[in-house]
Amino acid sequence: MNGSILIVDDEKAQREILSMILRREGCDIAEASSVREALALLAKREFDLILTDLKMQGQSGLDLLEQVMADDPQQCVILMTAHGSVDSAVGAMKRGAFDYLEKPLERENLLLTLKRAFERITLVRENQVLQKRVAEIQRIPSIIGDHPTMKEVYRIVTKIAATSSTVLIYGESGTGKELVARAIHDRSPRATQPFMAINCAAIPETLIESELFGHEKGSFTGANAREIGILEAANGGTVFLDEIGEMNVSMQAKLLRAIQEKEIRRVGGKVNLPLNVRIISATNRDLEGEIKKGAFREDLYYRLNVIRVNLPALRERGSDIITLADFFVAKYREASGIGVEGISRPALKLMMNYTWPGNVRQLESVIERAVLMAESSIIQPEDLPGEISRLSAQGGVVPFELPPEGINFEEMEKALIIKAMERADWVIGKAAPILGLSYKTLQYRLEKHGIEKPERRGR
Q1: Which terminal Cβ of the chain has fewer Cβ within 10 Å, N or C?
Q2: Whether residue 288 is found in the same domain as residue 198
Q3: Is 247 within the bounds of a domain?
């Protein structure tokens, strides 16, 4: 029986007997005489299993169970209890404990219970590894996130990558539109050919035609030599037109003709050149609204919008913030050589409550800065930029004026819980930090208000 066990009991003799028995079975044992001591050990290392007495001086085994489950609902905890406290132990199992043992402990019963516990731990870990492998197979490496909206993005990218259809990507600045465009290209038959990107908003109107189509020598002042445009240079590959909504109407007409006729002509040129590129465009504008205002051509819109990909803002997929933050910590730890291992729960809570106007790009910048500024191996609230860490000084509380007519507190609490669960994709462990609650407390309040995931309500 191999594994690490933390024994928590305020009776020294009981701890010593258990330690002796379990070490003989090949277990790695650590001891704690109180809940406080146990939590200090758990902060330093992980244990496969916690074996704790129910009744102790000061905080009880139930207190330890609640705090452990709040941090890690998968932690295996077994309680030891006197015969008169069996009801309490059964209640503890409802709160997440694996099992309980009645005192005085019988060696065979102890070992049998621990054997079952380790079998369960092994199964849970194997399942986690399997789920991770499946996710890695399905995930597109450059796009990170498990929120349902991102899974829909993966599905579309995978399904349409092999085609040559035009794609229009909608999303706010910083959501990763170019990453999606590159993912489509990399999974397509054009993957070995060029991927060329141009930001239509960053190039003056007088130069964008030359950038796209190229120009002949002497075609305008400063054209001292022939230049190949992006469309010609990417022939056989993919062209990504970022911020397509910023392109002027005259240039839109020329782009439309190139797409329709599959040919281009350099500025100042007399020969039409064949064009074989896939066009992927992106915008953060409402192009249908721009069409109504006469700022965008309707015929070009339908040419570009054969396949539409909607990228959600980071605030709309809050459950991915932790996943993305962990990824960026690992990325910049490796790049900088600084030994930052992770992010503290208070810092994560602040990040979950922040609205991220700059989306994933802003989050990456924040994590890069935090890795460089961190005073310890764990990123703390004070390592975050002022606009985020400022929430800490406010206690993470949004100012709220009580209306003269009063409020229905129960309904408000219910509405806040539903909003947090929706942001966390109905994962209790991710929603709890948003509300500043423990896992078990949020679970209790969900049951109290009768809140269930929407698709389950009709069953």
Answers
A1: C
A2: yes
A3: yes
